Hints:
Largest sheet: 3 strands, antiparallel
Number of helices: 2
Radius of gyration: 15 Å
CATH topology: Aminopeptidase
CATH class: Alpha Beta
Helix content: 25-40%
Strand order of the largest sheet: 1-3-2
Protein name: GNAT family N-acetyltransferase
CATH architecture: 3-Layer(aba) Sandwich
Number of strands: 3
Number of domains: 1
Shape: elongated
Organism: Paenibacillus ottowii
Mean pLDDT: 92
Amino acid sequence: MNKIYATVAACNQVSIKLLEKFHFKLEGTYREHYWFSDGSICDQYHYSLLKREHASLAEKEIEGN
């Protein structure tokens, strides 16, 4: 496996903060992708973490301990 990814509604700030905490990178946006029952519309964000990025982070963590 070379990449894991996640999609999230742009209005879901809690999930976005979690992805960014684990160093996922924003790859792109589907504009006005989600339509909610209250009539609101929200973009969809695509985040990913590559295997080499994860390995680099793990190595830095080991060196820091």
